[in-house]
Structures are given as C-alpha cells and as structure tokens.
Specification:
The protein folds into two domains: 359 residues, TIM Barrel (Alpha-Beta Barrel); 59 residues, no CATH class. It is built from 21 helices and eleven strands. Strands 1, 2, 5, 6, 7, 8, 9, 10 and 11 form a nine-stranded parallel sheet that branches. By secondary structure, the chain is an alpha/beta fold. The structure holds S-adenosylmethionine and iron/sulfur cluster.
Length: 496
Amino acid sequence: MDTSKQNLLDKMIKRDEITRYYTNGRDFIDDELIMRQLEAGKKNTDPARIRDILAKSLAVETLEPEETAALLYVTDPELRKEMEETANAIKHKVYDNRIVTFAPMYISSHCINRCRYCGFSADNPNQKRRCLTMDEIKAEAEAMTGIHGHKRVMAVYGEHPMTGAEFIAESLDAIYSVNVKTRHGNSNVRRINVNAAPLSIDDLKIVQQAGIGTFQVFQETYNHKVYAQMHPADTVKGDYGWRLTCMHRAFDAGIDDVGLGVLFGLQPDWRFEVMGLITHARELERFVGIGPHTFSVPRMHAASGSDVANSPSTFTDDNFIHAVTVLRLSVPYTGLIVTARETAELRDRCLDLGITQMDASTRIDIGGYSQRNTTQKMDEQQFMLGDPRTLEQMIVDLARKGIITSFCTAGYRCGRTGGCIMDALKTGKEGTFCKINAVLTYREWLDDFASPESVKICEPVIQQELKAIEETYPLFYPNVLERYNRICAGERDLYF
Ligand code: SAM
Ligand code: SF4
C-alpha cells in the first residue's frame, strides 16, 4: 500500500476504538462457529422441534443461534407456512397493525471507498457526483415533507472528507429547520435517521448532539473472506473490524438507537448472513443490554459500473422471504425494514412476514425530490430501485389491506429509545403509544396530503383504529379524542 493511502487509513481508523471491543484479540464474528451452528441446524429440522422454536418466538423471546439455524433449513411448505404465520402474529403482538414510513435523502455521492457492488465506488468514472449544499438540503426537505408529507428521513452519505461528522451534523440541522405550510396545518421532518460510514467515538458524539434518530451501518457481509473480496484492503471500508465495532462506539458515544443490515445477494450463503445479523444483535445485547432497533435487509440491485451488482445472483425471492421470516422469528422485538429496492409485489408479500417499516416516494438520485425527477438514471444513483410507488399510492394500498401507515416520531422525542423502547416492545407497551400516535399522524397526513379518493379508502382504517383504542383503553380514550380533535382543527405534531 502506498504511504498516502496508509496515512489516510491511519487518520480515519482509530485502532484502539476497534480492539477495545475484541476478546482475546478477536472480533465477535467467528466464521467457523457460525458454519458449525448452520451444520447443526441443518440436521435438526424435526417438525416438533421447529414448532417448539416457534412457540418461543411467539413468547417474544430471542432465539439461540442453533434455533435460528434450524429455521433457516426448513423446506417443508407446510412448516414454512407455519413459520410465516407465526412471524406475522409476532409482528401484530409487538408492533400492532401498522407500518412506519420514511424516505431516504441521498446527500452526497462522493466516496473514497471502492466497494465492488456500489455505483458510488471511487472506481466508477461514470457516476455523476454531487454533494448537496445546505440550501439544497433544505430544498430536498421541503419537497419531501411539503409535497409528499414525510416526517421521517433517512439521511444517506458516501464516505468522504467532505461529508464528515461536522457536515452530517450541519445537514441534520438544515433538515430539522424546514417547516412547510400545508392545506390545514404545517409539515416538518421530525426524525432523521442516518446511514453513513462508521465514525469514531468523538465524531459520533457530534452527530448525536445534532439529534440523530437511528444510526444505521450495514456490515454488508459478515463473512470475513467475502468482505475482503468486496472491499479493497487499501480503503477505509476494507477494514472489517472498524465497521463491525461501529455500533459499540455508537453506544459509547451516547447513541442508543442503532440499525444493522447486510447486503443480501453479495454472496451465495445467505443463511450465514442471517446468522451474522443475529450474532451481532446478541453481541450488542451482551455489551449494553440493548439490541438493535432495526434490521435492514437490502438486496443487491443493478448499479452503475459494478461487475458484481450487474451479474446474476443466486439469491432468489424465496430466499429473501425465508430470510425475512427467520429474522422476525429470531429477534421478535427488532423492527424490520424492506426498502423500495424491492418490487411492490415482493414488499406486499413481506407485509405478511412481520416487516415494520417501508419507504415510499423514494428518490435516491442526489437532489431528486426538489427537482421532481420521475425517472431513474443509472449513473446518477447508487443502484436501481424496484418499487416506484408514491407515498400516497402505498398508503392507499396498505389501507386496502386494513393496515395503518404511521408517521409517529414520538418515541425518540419522548426518550423511548434504547433499553427503554426494547422493554416497551418486549412487554407490548410500545404498541399502545404507537397505535395512538399512528392514528394522530395518519389524521394529519390525510388532512394535509390525501386526495378525496384516497381519504375515502383510508378513513375506514382510522375509524377501525379509533374503535380499537376506545375498546382497549376506555378510560384513556377521551384524552386521545381530545388531541385527535385538535389535529382535525389544524394543530400539528401532538403525540403521547
Ligand atoms: N457509504 C456508507 C456506507 O457504505 O456505509 C453509506 C451507505 S450506502 C450509501 C447505503 C447502503 O446501500 C450500503 O450500506 C449497501 O448495503 C447498500 N448498497 C450498496 N450498493 C448497493 C446495490 N448495488 N444494491 C443495493 N444496495 C446497495
Ligand atoms: Fe461508498 Fe458506501 Fe458505496 Fe461503499 S457502499 S462505495 S462506502 S457509498
């Protein structure tokens, strides 16, 4: 490696902020142990045992790795169906009848890394790169919240000195500063999650103080060898340990809400990646007593200039469905995000497997919301999307299935994060607040953004939810109604 590259790595990667989280000099992903767990699981798919495991999941208990491994090898269609039904039942028990919605805001496509699957790779000369100014970021926020009605944004950045922690913090301020007049009230972004490169503890503190929601970093692959093949060693991202330990650093920096993910399709052994995710979740529970708030299950899609992303993958839709089901069963309290990378049909299918969050009206070209772009251009975005639905179309599709879309951002602002939210989810208490807040935010969105035709389809959902709240919490119901009526009169951002 040449000296300038080595100097950059030495500057960006704080060695002691990796090794302090190791045991006996090793990170917590033991590839061979995972292989052995998978082998054992493969031999142990007896239906009676699988049903015992499902009963444990339904009791909202985190599964042991050997139990997850067994679920990953179930092939019998009847048992697979039982697994899916249990996954759906857990979702309803823990997260009730709602889908939380958000949209990504891609802020910069400049990147110093050369991940082989990504259109933003520094090796890709075709990518038309752009980094938004603070005014452009505000324009994006205005479009996202003012045209579509989004309240939750996922801010996404390539890794580059231009977009370090100070820039991220400034961009969060810019997004939070926007407030747009709507038909009956106003709209603003109330929670910003961040998907960015791993940061040092000091940098994470800077981002934390700017009011971050969830800090997301995807490991991409937990397999050490595949990781090395996909991420050149002379890049920052080439350091497996720096990435793997970033959530430990986040907790040490005071961020107690983190999101994990893998890039499915990167390697044939998708079961290994599910095991990696649950091992990571268990390690965080061991480390701070708090698991991840969300798992993301991005799957590799076509990307500008990438040999890997544009090659056929062996990872099928059925594998995807199986992986999502097993994740829901293995860590019942963790949210599950399926993004617009996937088609509307596949995302709808995942609704029955216990997913909790979906994006909509998604633009991943830099500045795409304010420019009102409607077509995808391979060389101006990281990869290609599969679900072009607007937020309104998605909300209506969900309403037709009796599902309420939630814009709730109260948990984070009321301090219901980290250990507190985990406990609330495990005991079913979070469902109460979320059910009510879903209704309040849905009312806001319907009044401010829905067409009369959409209101007709969505109104029965709100009535159904209000009725359920009245039946379950008769004494509290008048308080709910009082805030609901204030929202109908044009007040905004009322929550419990
Ligand atoms: N640059 C930061 C990083 O790599 O951590 C931020 C994340 S990147 C902009 C967001 C995520 O997109 C990556 O973590 C990866 O999982 C995913 N991604 C990259 N290339 C992709 C592709 N071809 N198809 C689908 N998802 C992809
Ligand atoms: Fe850069 Fe992230 Fe793309 Fe890798 S995945 S090239 S780090 S933007």
